[in-house]
């Protein structure tokens, strides 16, 4: 049985992860306003996104869906990751 987690990754957390794992600094307010822009707009490439996914998997002890590594925008990424955290999948 999968365990549901009562947590949601916020824009602020994503911004901090982008800086810590990929060296990309984006102000959380800017990230929130431009959440539908591509990650490449912020200078984050697929390898950087992979690092964020790995950090979240380690943090929550949960394998995230494979699609997380292929999300194109912060909005899509947060929706997918938070959905997975809520359902435990």
UniProtKB/TrEMBL annotation:
Residues 8-89 form the Carrier domain. The keyword NADP does not apply. The keyword Phosphoprotein applies. Keywords: Phosphopantetheine, Phosphoprotein. It comes from the Bacteria. SUPFAM superfamilies: ACP-like. Pfam families: PP-binding. InterPro entries: ACP-like_sf, PP-bd_ACP, Ppantetheine_attach_site. This is Acyl carrier protein. It comes from Streptomyces ardesiacus.
């Amino acid at each position: 049985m999968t365990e549901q987690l009562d947590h949601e990754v916020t824009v602020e957390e994503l911004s901090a992860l982008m800086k810590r794992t990929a060296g990309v600094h984006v102000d959380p307010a800017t990230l929130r306003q431009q959440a539908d822009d591509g990650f490449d707009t912020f200078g984050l490439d697929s390898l950087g996104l992979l690092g964020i996914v790995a950090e979240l998997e380690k943090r929550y002890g949960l394998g995230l869906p494979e699609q997380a590594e292929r999300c194109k925008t912060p909005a899509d990424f947060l929706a997918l990751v938070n959905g997975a955290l809520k359902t435990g999948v």
